[in-house]
Amino acid sequence: MSASDNDTVATSEATSDALLTPAGGSGDPALPDADPASSDAVVEPVDVEDESDDEDGGDGLLVREGDVAGDYLERLLDILDVDGDIDLDVEGDRASVAVVGGQLKTLIGPDGATLEALQELTRLAVAQSTGVRSRLMLDIGGFRAKRRADLTSLASAAAERVAESGAPERLSPMNPFERKVVHDVIAAAAGVRSESEGEEPNRRVVVLPDR
Question: Of 109 and 25, which is predicted with more confidence?
Answer without folding.
Answer: 109
